[in-house]
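--- STAGE predict ---
source: upstream dedup step, 1 unique chain passed
mode: sequence only
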Amino acid sequence: MNTQIEENYLKALYHISLHNEGGKISVNELSRHLNIKMPTVNSMMKKLSEKGYVTYVSYKPIKLTPTGKLTAALIVRKHRLIEMFLVQEMGFGWEEVHDIAEQMEHIQSPKFFEKIDELLHYPKFDPHGSPIPDADGQVVSLNAVQLSECAPGRTVRLVGVRDSSEEFLQYLTGKHIKIGTKIKITGKEDFDGTMYCEIGKAAQLVFSKIIADKLLVE
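--- STAGE serialize ---
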């Protein structure tokens, strides 16, 4: 059985590897992501290597092994199923569920999560639009682009966010924006990428490029 600390490392490796070519991660990158000193990270990588979860050689990039990738994906699966359950079945706001899921993802009971999956009718995505790995660690591809890449005149639908922090989700909630919201793009500044949008009959909304980059639409 893995410790919570080991699971947190595996989850971090999983998330970083999705954005890196070949799934390779440097110790320095992992150290910055977790805000943990490099000697401590190196020590943990040796432990995870001994368990067969990563390939690790000093001064070379880390890579999850197939076993490590599956183990990490199943931790992410538990986290995202919990978030979905809290929102769909218990009425939590999407900005409230991350910290609770962080605590519950370490429960060691496959049957418990199988039951949650069944109760939710086997969702493919969590409340923030992130794909939920299946029991084999496989995920459905999210066919989306950043709002900032879209041209004026288009109407798109929000399918995910690149920032699931409480502050950002509260900002979106305050603008009455959630997964599935249709956004009509009415204008865009060439100079700084500021976007002018409409949502339903609400007043025109203005998104900075920083915000528009974080909204995934199709």
